[in-house]
Backbone:
């Protein structure tokens, strides 16, 4: 079983979001970067599958040199080796092309990643990779179990779940509760330092979208407090002031 | 531009978010063709929202949602109709389907689009990013574009004419049917959380799943969907598809009512594009009040029945 886990390097969920250089760049000042939370679920499930049926886990990130501590963390959690495509992850298509180029001749049985990155939230890369490789793609995957060369998965839909069976190889965008996040132990952290991390140049593919400017939403006004014994006033506000009920 | 809108149905009816996609396509391109899979009981809504033609796929093989086969069919429809713009609503089906279409037709794709585009020089969209905490004005290049719109961002046009409904029989490729759907579990008759215009959500302040009746009474009275916080879903008080937040469902209703939820930043990330937020919490220091438009400092067990009564009274 060869598993490729693709991870993003994203600001911690509690980060204050701000921009610099005339609102054209994300302000990294004081921001803690982490493995994307959904990617972390994918990695945790990969580690469990490896424990069950053996094999190897390669972790892949498209990013510049500053993402290496995040990649090392994935190695500490249980990946065997890593590849970093040395490029800024400009858009989903660009990232998908890089992943597909690595996976094309890599002989992976499973390609796992998060359902979406928590910075750009596109949720498209797994589908693009699947199509580029001509294999199935499924997302958002909540459970994933292997049975020989097939897999049984469940996928969240609006108001419920779909259960599916499909042959390997395929691409899955993962989310909770596929596995519990794993915290690296000291042995993992030590061994991660010497695990192979290969840096590769990107393919020549160009992105098709470019951010020209970032914006923050307008600040919220003061909250209007209503006495708990005066629910008629609240209903009146919702009905006649906000006009929403 | 010539636009194709991918319309999804739920229990045989057109989803509201899909009508928003049709209206976006109409505002941008004028002439809109829609594609819809399955038997639709209210197909006339698609015309009202701005489409002049509807491609209806009724092949039994495509009756169940199929990511690969739907993407092949949509790409084929785009080629047949000469569409250079595909518009759809963000959803658990729309996301994976459109990703594959973008590769098939070599299109630029933008997701979470929060407004109509600026087409004064090229095609620039306002995308919601960082889970609603910011926007990115994004330029799309190339001849073909795919736009995935965020819910409640586009007003539905209601005065369009009757659309011509045409049967569409896409090519069936066996390679698209290697994934088999074995079972679908879905709550029937409920208002879908991501589609809802009003949402009532409960947190740990409700103390246990046995008290959810209070949330459901208010939701039923308002015609709202019900949601919950992450701890509530983690403790299995409520199913995961009701979990609102950073790693759950992101909602953008007109009104989000949060009951007994403190307002952790990860929860706020899932609700910050709501038009109005009402917070009910007994702790006046709960961080959620800072993100709220309306607030009631009080115990959920006291406030909820009173609020439900007051809504009923106002409804007459």
Residues:
């Amino acid at each position: 079983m060869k598993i490729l886990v693709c991870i993003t390097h994203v600001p911690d969920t509690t980060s204050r979001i701000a921009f610099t250089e005339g609102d054209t760049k994300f302000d990294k000042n004081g921001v803690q970067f982490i493995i994307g939370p959904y990617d972390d679920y994918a990695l945790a499930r990969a580690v469990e599958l490896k424990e069950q049926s053996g094999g190897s886990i390669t972790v892949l990130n498209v990013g510049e040199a500053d993402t290496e501590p995040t990649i090392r963390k994935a190695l500490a959690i249980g990946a065997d080796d890593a590849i970093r495509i040395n490029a800024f992850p400009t858009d989903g298509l660009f990232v998908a092309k890089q992943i597909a180029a690595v996976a094309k001749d890599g002989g992976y049985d499973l390609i796992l990643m998060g359902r979406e990155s928590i910075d750009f939230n596109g949720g498209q890369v797994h589908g693009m990779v699947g199509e580029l490789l001509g294999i199935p793609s499924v997302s958002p995957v909540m459970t994933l179990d292997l049975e020989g060369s097939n897999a049984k998965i469940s996928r969240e839909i609006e108001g419920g779940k779909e259960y599916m069976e499909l042959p390997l190889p395929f691409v899955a965008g993962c989310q909770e509760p596929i596995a519990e996040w794993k915290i690296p132990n000291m042995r993992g952290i030590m061994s991660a330092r010497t695990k192979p991390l290969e840096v590769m140049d990107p393919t020549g593919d160009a992105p098709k979208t470019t951010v020209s400017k970032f914006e923050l939403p307008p600040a919220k006004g003061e909250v209007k407090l209503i006495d708990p014994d005066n629910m008629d006033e609240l209903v009146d506000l919702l009905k006649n002031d906000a006009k929403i009920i | 531009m010539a636009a194709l809108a991918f319309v999804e149905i739920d229990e045989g009816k057109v989803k509201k978010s899909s009508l928003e996609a049709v209206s976006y396509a109409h505002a941008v391109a004028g002439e809109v063709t829609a594609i819809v899979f399955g038997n639709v009981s209210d197909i006339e809504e698609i015309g009202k929202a701005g489409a002049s033609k509807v491609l209806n796929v009724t092949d039994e093989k495509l009756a169940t949602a199929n990511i690969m086969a739907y993407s092949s069919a949509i790409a084929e429809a785009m080629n047949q109709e000469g569409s250079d713009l595909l518009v759809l609503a963000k959803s658990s089906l729309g996301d994976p389907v459109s990703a594959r279409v973008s590769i098939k037709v070599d299109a630029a794709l933008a997701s979470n689009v929060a407004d109509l585009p600026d087409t004064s020089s090229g095609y620039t969209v306002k995308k919601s990013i960082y889970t609603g905490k910011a926007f990115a004005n994004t330029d799309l290049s190339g001849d073909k574009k795919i736009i995935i719109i965020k819910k409640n961002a586009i007003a539905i046009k209601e005065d369009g004419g009757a659309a011509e409904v045409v049967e569409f029989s896409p090519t069936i490729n066996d390679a698209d049917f290697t994934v088999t759907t074995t079972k679908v579990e879905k709550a029937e008759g409920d208002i879908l959380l991501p589609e809802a215009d009003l949402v009532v959500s409960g947190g740990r302040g409700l103390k246990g799943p046995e008290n959810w009746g209070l949330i459901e009474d208010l939701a039923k009275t308002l015609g709202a969907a019900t949601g919950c916080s992450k701890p509530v879903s983690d403790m299995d008080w409520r199913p995961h598809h009701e979990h609102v937040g950073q790693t759950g469902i992101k909602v953008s209703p007109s009104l989000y009512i949060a009951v007994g939820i403190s307002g952790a930043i990860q929860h706020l990330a899932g609700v910050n594009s709501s038009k109005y937020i009402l917070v009910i919490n007994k702790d006046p220091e709960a961080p959620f009040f800072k993100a709220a438009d309306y607030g009631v400092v009080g115990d959920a067990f006291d406030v909820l029945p009173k609020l439900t009564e007051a809504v009923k009274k106002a409804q007459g």
Notes: DSSP finds six helices and 15 strands in chain A. Chain A touches chain B through 80 residues (CB under 8 Å). Residues 37-53 of chain A form the longest helix (17 residues).
